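Consider this:
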Amino acid sequence: MSDTDRPPLVAPAPAEAAAYVRDARERRAFCTLLGRCHVAYDGRTTSHAGPADRLVALKPDLTLLVHAADGPKPQNWLAADALDVDVADGALLLTATRESPTEELCVTFESIEQAAAMAADETDATVEISGTEADLKERVLADPALVEPGFRALAAERDTPAGPVDVFGRDSSGRAVAVELKATRAGPDAASQLSRYVDALRRDLHADADVRGILVAPSCTPRTRRVLARDGHEFVSLEP
């Protein structure tokens, strides 16, 4: 806990919880409330969720999120312009409003089990995504032998009438090779797409061109293997 954090409250009274949330809002801190509440939304549609145990989170930018007991996504949320914190009839009321479009999300707590807040480090953190198809392509282009010994990568995104082939090259015997890349488990659609590329390359090169097709992915489904075998293509397992 940093010097600017506040200790969590256990079973706070509505007025105590309201003061806690207001303080978090003023400090631009993360704040969570766990308790029994009902939720009303008015804006693009109108909805009401009856009393239930929920987790409510307030972010420093005034985004209010309401999570039910199950499911990964919030039951409701609003990126608000303003947040009012009130106590009425013995209940804590959080009212988030947005001007454009006009929206209102109101959370009314019948009881609160816990309130917690933490000072937010608002340093901009860049999200670095790895394990993409671009990463896999970079691996293959940097080391074509990962596809098979003797493979030479000649072009990336090689145009064909069926669309661009991820990697086009030739094997150790000089035969043309179309390589279809997938960063995750490949399905039958990937195998069918590879067949279209191979057929297009045969037409594009010359009628009797010998073109191989290789699907490269971390894994593939059994059905995908059957489609590849049916069409005379191959599979190589490779992580991005």
Summary: The longest helix spans residues 188-205. The radius of gyration is 28 Å. The longest strand covers residues 103-119.
